[in-house]
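Quick question: what would this complex look like in 3D?
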Amino acid sequence: MTTENALIEPIVLGAERRKKPSPGARKTVRLGLLGCGTVGRGLLELIERNRALIEERAGISLEVTKILVRDLSKERPGVDRSLLTDRPEEIVAGSLRGATFVAPAPCDIVVELLGGIEPARSLVARAIADGKSVVTANKALLALAGAEIFRAAARSGVRIGFEASVCAGIPIIRALESGLVGNRVDTLCGILNGTSNFILTRMTELGESFEAALEEARRRGFAEADPSLDVDGHDAAQKLAILSELAFGVPIAPGSVKVEGIRQIEPEDVRAAKELGFVLKPIAFARDLGDALELRVEPTLLPIDHTLAHVRFEDNAVLVKGDAAGELIFRGKGAGSLPTASAVLSDIVDIARNGSAPLRYADAPPKPAAPDGHARFYIRFPVIDVPGVIGRIATALGSRGISISHASATLVPGKPGHGNVKVLAHDCRASVLAETIDAVSRLPVLTGKPVAIRILETS
Amino acid sequence: MTTENALIEPIVLGAERRKKPSPGARKTVRLGLLGCGTVGRGLLELIERNRALIEERAGISLEVTKILVRDLSKERPGVDRSLLTDRPEEIVAGSLRGATFVAPAPCDIVVELLGGIEPARSLVARAIADGKSVVTANKALLALAGAEIFRAAARSGVRIGFEASVCAGIPIIRALESGLVGNRVDTLCGILNGTSNFILTRMTELGESFEAALEEARRRGFAEADPSLDVDGHDAAQKLAILSELAFGVPIAPGSVKVEGIRQIEPEDVRAAKELGFVLKPIAFARDLGDALELRVEPTLLPIDHTLAHVRFEDNAVLVKGDAAGELIFRGKGAGSLPTASAVLSDIVDIARNGSAPLRYADAPPKPAAPDGHARFYIRFPVIDVPGVIGRIATALGSRGISISHASATLVPGKPGHGNVKVLAHDCRASVLAETIDAVSRLPVLTGKPVAIRILETS
């Protein structure tokens, strides 16, 4: 048996045996925090609250050695002031401010919670160059500079933990990296922006307008003062790019996700959706067609028995189809201080415990965007309420090869003479439909820009 | 910087750097399979199909060195016959058959897919003693002998991978061990048995009887010839025990889960549930009350907007409440050859890549069962159809302190003179209700055993 064991490659199991902590042994892991905003304070709170539990479960004792903040004078209740610094070089080596050398506080993992691109990008690069693993919740940074960061990390032999960058506390990065490691994933589909889902849910269930629902989201602290990252789909697109790189193993260039927001949606549309047996959801969709990728974020109609149709209000969910595991759905809170801190903490513990190199991240050459697929569409045409208006629109669509299975007209309350014609178009290409709508919208009966919404049929 | 790095504990980050594989480097991981049934063949198929993908993503090349089977002569299409053996000692050292010494084939990880208790238990113990990590899909074994297996593994410094033992391809073990590592979990609730969910879904959506739905499950290969493990709740109870040990960190003795199956459910019950705004689901529920545990598997009524209410047919789902991450839901196929193989493979890759010791498994002292909590209940009393029967039952309940919010009577089609009285009881203790039902069932108008079903109110 001894001879046999000696034959085992040390990297596989020998290392495991060497590294086994003796019962009760604790390893201290020192953290340097960049940023002390909502997530930073959530992390500090969570580390304090569950310290004993983490030590007991994982044999790890966490110690925060320094916290970088912009403004030292700001009140931060519950945060040990002696840990605060406004000098990045006290956490990562080198200096952003010139030649002065400052020895950084000892730390094993750098936790980047600054958000935004700079100085996060430079500080993360510096931490990697220092040989420190980095945990980040910064999806904008990863979407923009992920490839560069992961390459640098591979060169330095350090890990980048980014579970918190997508869907906060939902362990979707782990699921793709580890749970589904033996699967070929071809489709990934999700509700990745809680604010948009909250707004569309309020519009659907309470009949609110987009503006009223957005205001409510603001009141509850979901939406930023400038909500465009959320409601225009860019936040979801960044998350979709990160998830798709993992799922499909190819780099996704920023901007390769087709994005459409939800501002143009009227209560009229969610009502019509319901009557037709659909629910309107902010869907991020990615599919690997082998030689090309479909990547889009747009409001989408789901059949009411679709798995994602029941994901309401600010909840997020991701559906992944693996060739072995089948269809998996992960659902939960996609934002918030503690859910995000939960994900950051899971990465910290994982990096502290596991010595392996990360999976190879998006190593293959990029794939081109797929040509538009076929789908059914719901289309609303704002019109002047004149006799024969349905006929004129249906004829215009038909003459351009778009068949419809349903058409109805309604009046706009409080706007005499104004109405909407709503149609369900048969399977057609989005690009063909767009051209056709463009042509139809030049009809004199039209009063505004038509709204077309894709229907996602499969679960 | 060099000085600084030298101060970092080698276990945390130094090891990581040492272990970084050079680009393109591949590590061969040799697998000894115990068993070549449905899951074993699924695993072999998956390894072949996604070999390149696994090598590329994880830098690991998988090699099956031996496969233990009971019957060497059986046809196994696609399986390399030269790998088969009927002698366990060719995979794990020592001999089950006496003193003959056989040098086992070299392997790094033993994959136990035999199912059942023996010889799985002995062979796993032997593999652990050999210093080999073990991956198993055997929930019955873990439910019975988990504590002993995990203790032995800790002593030998090897890992036990058991993702496949609960809910097949849903990475719920990973979620609890890693994604939620920083969370205190207080509630875990799920649909853990696909056959029972399939049967109740057919009864609900198609009005089938229990027997007809079970027959259909058999026809589709979900249910065994003897379906009692599934429909009597024991399979779900084993899974709940494994998940609860991880979630709450305490050992769960077999038999400490209160179990009730679904055989007594009539189409009548699912119909009434629907009319009252509920859906009947086979629910496994665990809650940590601090000084005691609530653990039960039973058919349960969920409000129709409950997250688990939409989990249909053979799908499984687990809802976990973490104090930081909030409510997370994991959903997917809970059985089947490839989904289970997907989980087995994820454990193999994880053990091959990560050198860390497992989380401490159920180290704390066990907790007693919690006293019965309060709940609302639906109760059906099979009765003789006589005037005043609702009154007599309602009075009997009321006189024993059980208030009701709804009562209705229906006739049993095709059984003249027989009916059912269905009531909704207000919040009461299950134990008090059970005594009361016992008393009421001695009323002369009763024709059979009443059926009481708990209502789970919260999401």
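Answer marked as accepted. Chain A has three domains: 2-161, 182-333, 374-455.
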